[in-house]
Specification:
Layout: H1 2-17, H2 21-35, H3 41-73, H4 82-85, H5 95-105, H6 111-133
Amino acid sequence: MYLNIQLNMKKAYNDIFNVNPNYSTTIAYIIGLLLIDDLSVTEQNTLGNWIMLIAQTVVTHAASQNIIEARIKGGGININSKKVKSIYNPSYYKIEKAKEIIDKAFPNHSFEIDTIINAINELNDKVNELKKED
């Protein structure tokens, strides 16, 4: 059941994750204003802290995962850079289109990854040769 709920949430939020960050921030701001209606200051504070606790859990997990993935993939591409935004800055991101634009803006971004993968493969080959000698 938990897995089913997780899959449904991912499907439901898929569109939200591709919305331009400026629009997403504005929507969150409006929702925040709507949530505080008819709440006392203490209730607003409690609700706000509870929501921030959820948010901190999500961003802490995401940051940890992100740093690991960045170290594995090597280098980062800043989709928020002026170089990318001058080519592609829609209200709704089409991920395949964004990948295409990043490849145009940063044509050699996978060079380091390929170099690391080749080095790892060479090391694996040498380790296998040493294992055969034993």
